[in-house]
Structure prediction request, 153 residues.
Amino acid sequence: MKYSKKELEPKFRQYYLDITERVASLSTCKRAQVGTVIVKDNKIISTGYNGSVRGTEHCTDVGCLMVDGHCMRCLHSEINAIAFAEKDDLKRATLFCTHKPCLSCFNLLAQVGITDVVYINDYGKHEGEVAEYYYKVKRARGINFHKGTTDYY
Ligand SMILES: [Zn+2]
Ligand SMILES: [Zn+2]
Prediction:
């Protein structure tokens, strides 16, 4: 596989993945620390970590707001990174994340035109209908997933 995008070359991928871990360390959720870096034309256009709405209390101070095993106070890092990016920059951008995006974040990144996702850790199981859904949306929107510095699918 030959990548046309410089940010997808292994050494750059590692560099951006390293940054996602530094960004994740800023998270104020006690349940998980997740970081996102969005790159376009080998330039960082936005970063985000999972945390509460600006100006409101943090999980580190008041505990997580758990519903069905998920903390509902925290915006996911991908959502924060997308919210703080320039809308036009997101088209054909690459999203680096410490974790594989959940279905809601995946829907959003597909909607805004992000075309590559590079992540370190798997998150949740995607089987059956959900796996099929990911596949369909990836194909429809021309999205490629990459795990770590070498895997591609
Ligand atoms: Zn939390
Ligand atoms: Zn998510």
The radius of gyration is 15 Å. The pocket of zinc ion (ligand 2) is lined by residues 76, 78, 101-102, 104-105 (CB under 6 Å).
